[in-house]
Amino acid sequence: DTEVTQTPKHLVMGMTNKKSLKCEQHMGHRAMYWYKQKAKKPPELMFVYSYEKLSINESVPSRFSPECPNSSLLNLHLHALQPEDSALYLCASSLGRWTLNTGELFFGEGSRLTVL
Amino acid sequence: GDSVTQMEGPVTLSEEAFLTINCTYTATGYPSLFWYVQYPGEGLQLLLKATKADDKGSNKGFEATYRKETTSFHLEKGSVQVSDSAVYFCALSGGANSKLTFGKGITLSVRP
Known about the structure:
The complex is a heterodimer of chains A (116) and B (112). Chain A has 116 residues and is mainly beta. Chain A contains no helices and eleven strands. In chain A, strands 2, 4, 5, 6, 9, 10 and 11 form a seven-stranded mixed sheet that branches. With 112 residues, chain B is mostly beta strands. Chain B has no helices and twelve strands. Chain B is globular and about 45 Å long. At the A-B interface, strand 10 of A face strand 6 and strand 10 of B.
């Protein structure tokens, strides 16, 4: 069983809706990540939190808003999305940010988002 | 910048066949190398890793050796099973302040 839990597993939303994706880990990891994955493509990095502070934003549109309420939780708030934002959104965690570990990430199973 | 190149797919094999998936990389310094696997409908899982030249990573019958002279990290398995059907991503972490860089991934299908 994965130790990174993501909810919901599936989400359908209209372009005017506001929704959130949630991610939780209890491994004591201090870095958490959001990735976006389109079908048959590798994951694309969106955001990195290190010690609950946003350390990397890969020029993601502002309609995606990350939040890290504490070291175990990571949210991704969604607003005014476009159909092309439909994808699998993966959360991951690691002991420390890349500088502090060998790059081993633990992924959740993802939230499959469909924007109508 | 850092990059990872994987062989083109998809790959279809019969059960018990030998598997090789090629991966080469470009990086400055001494990266760590990884194979991640994504089973249908799931997130990615670390399959194996190697952190320095000549290291061999192994897990679940899969192996890969970090070859600095050829900048390669090919994945091999002696006898594949239907349950190995998945997408396989080669990746590298280039060290300080370096992100995890993924290859394009390759889909493996194993027939009974």
